[in-house]
Amino acid sequence: MTENVTPMGVESTAAHTEAAGTTVGSDSVREDILAGRTSLGIELGSTRIKACLVGPDAAPIASGSHDWENQFVDRTWTYSLESVWAGLQASYAALVADVEQRYGVVPTTFQALGVSAMMHGYLAFDAAGELLVPFRTWRNTTTGPAAAELSALFGHNIPLRWSIAHLHQAILDDEPHVGDVAFLTTLAGYVHWRLTGRTVLGVGDASGVFPIDVETGGYDERMLAQFDELVAPRRPGTRLADLLPQVLPAGQEAGRLTPEGAALLDPTGTLTPGVPLCPPEGDAGTGMVATNSVAPRTANVSVGTSIFAMVVLEKPLDRVHDELDLVTTPSGDLVAMVHCNNGASELAAWAELFGQFATALGAPAEPDAVFGALLREALAGEADGGGLLAYNYLSGEPITGLAEGRPLFVRTPDSRLTLANFMRTQVYGAFGTLSIGMRVLAEEGVGLDAMYAHGGLFRTAGVAQRLLAAAVDAPVAVGSAAGEGGAWGIAVLAGYLAHAADQDLGTFLSQQVFADAEISVVAPDPDDVAGFAAFLERYTAGLRVEQAAAGAI
Predict the structure, then answer these.
(1) Contact at 8 Å (CB) between 312 and 298?
(2) Where is the Carbohydrate kinase FGGY C-terminal domain (predicted)?
(3) In this structure, which long-range contacts are made by residues 95-102, counting pairs with CB atoms below 8 Å and at least 24 apart in sequence?
């Protein structure tokens, strides 16, 4: 792995393909596709479903995507199952079209396939496989009583968005559907089940459903028994273990594509069944893989609609922290997760507004150009943002104790309102809750060599990377696959099926996938660190304003 002082933001799959040494349209790639030596990864993110095809060397060779949005229905954030399949089919069709355009062939099979998706949430099915209530996503924060009761019972933090919190809240609320629940799963687990017929989860995704015992690699037996005893007066005979998917580690085959599954993914009938699938994973796990952050003292941060940082621990934490989840890598190693419900969406909204202004002036620009120009302007801002304050809270934020959110921009009469200060403050605001959670880890004495960042925000070279380094006061690394994200990560996990018998996941990533990767590392600038600290003090004090806004509007 080489460090490169030149940031390596990726603008497209084609750019990464060429950087990885694969010639677009080459005979070798075409042969790999026809022979089924490629691996396919599909990730259902909050705003986009993306498919990524990789060759035997794990380098991306084609991609396809489909935009989608959650709906707020009856005060619940949800996606319909119809939109899940429409999006998956559109994303897969776009990938096939990309392959055909680049290489002149159409794939009919793959060496392996993997599915990942945003973690947590609640998908409950009856014995006939019918969805009992609309999908409740990670964004819902209505499970406070259940999460608090379970956290106290287990002596283990149970966040609001975890699947077990949703189930227990439904039990507390005596929801009629609870008696009919035959199994529950995550979004990745649901798609995998429909493709293979198996109700399984990768251990990383499962660790956001119910606590994992890292010694056994399965659900914590003590806590399972405690839950059954807790709900017995309301739901006698409940055995939680029977409702949860089987847990599998990375590298273990998790089923094969059935004829029905192949038709669901590719209604044209071109895709043949029989493709092996890796365990379905959550976006946190695929982010760790995509940044080679599965070993102790490594960490990664994923920035999208939400922001989450994953820090692989050398040992368990000394005590329970409400700000931190304890989850696992796709191999089952313990990870502290700082999950922020709100990420870059508010930044994108401001970029769209400035783009509309440019159009009104008669100087229209592409959205990526507008976003990049605004981010670069942030570097010219004062270190503390000029006294400005911004909150990106489109939804509630458990780390700061807010059940609902209202995006806010606030300034005092003596603050310095400039475009540079405004943009720096917006970026700082996106990293505010993340910084609070990371400071809790620092107080625990958790060591961190570097944080690897990925997500579209890092495609603009050097800006978000430098300001994130200030927010976490640690070096931030961005690699050549920063813009590829979790779809590439789950494609790599699918490809790992062929290597798991000979190498553990960390060795496979370091020695094969990332052996020649170019990495840009930015150390925290002392002035930026001091400036962000001043901003965070102002940000923490101003949470009362955010809370008042949510109560008044």
Answers:
(1) yes
(2) 299-497
(3) 95/40, 95/51, 95/52, 95/53, 95/62, 95/63, 95/64, 96/64, 96/266, 96/270, 97/64, 98/13, 98/62, 98/63, 98/64, 99/33, 99/53, 99/61, 99/62, 102/24, 102/25, 102/61, 102/62
Supply the pTM of this predicted model.
0.81
What is the rounded CA–CA span in Å between residue 513 and residue 507?
9
Instruction: Measure the CA dihedral 289/485/342/384, to 10°.
Output: 90
Greatest alpha-carbon pair distance for the chain in Å reads 68
Instruction: List, as own/partner pairs, every contact residues 407-412 make where C-beta atoms lie below 8 angstroms and the sequence separation is at least 24, other chains included.
Output: 407/346, 407/349, 408/545, 408/546, 408/549, 410/542, 410/545, 411/387, 412/387
CA distance 459 to 450: 19
Tell me how far apart the terminal alpha carbons of the chain are, to the nearest angstrom.
50
Q: What is the phi/psi pair of residue 97, to 5°? A: -65, -35
Mean pLDDT by 10 residues, the chain (553 residues): 28 34 67 97 95 95 95 92 98 98 97 96 97 94 95 95 97 97 98 98 98 96 98 96 98 98 98 98 92 89 87 91 92 93 94 97 95 95 98 92 94 97 97 94 86 83 92 87 76 98 94 87 95 98 96 95
C-alpha to C-alpha distance for 457 and 371, rounded to whole angstroms: 9
DSSP string, 355-393: HHHHHHTT----HHHHHHHHHHHHTTS-TTGGG-EEE--
Chain mean position to CA 184: 20
Instruction: Say how many C-beta atoms besides its own lie within 10 A of residue 168's C-beta.
Output: 25
315-324: long-range pairs with CB below 8 Å, 24+: 317/444, 317/446, 318/444, 320/151, 320/155, 320/156, 320/157, 321/157, 321/440, 321/444, 322/151, 322/157, 322/398, 322/399, 323/399, 323/436, 323/437, 323/440, 324/157, 324/437, 324/440, 324/441
User: Tokens 């819902």 belong to which residue?
Assistant: 140
What are the tokens at 32? Answer: 């790999």
Contact assessment for residue 203 and residue 252, using Cβ atoms and an 8 Å cutoff: no
DSSP 8-class letter at 394: S
167 SS3 class: helix
Judge whether 137 and 73 are in contact, CB under 8 Å.
no
Q: Are 289 and 301 in contact (CB under 8 A)?
A: no
Output the DSSP codes for 202-263: EHHHHTTTS-EETTTTEE-HHHHHHHHHHHTTTSTT--GGGTSPEEE-TTS---B--HHHHH
What is the chain's alpha carbon radius of gyration, rounded to the nearest angstrom?
A: 23
Give the separation between CA 67 and CA 352, rounded to whole angstroms.
16
Return the percent helix, strand and coil in the chain, to nearest 5. Answer: 40, 20, 40
Distance of CA 119 to the CA centre of its chain: 7
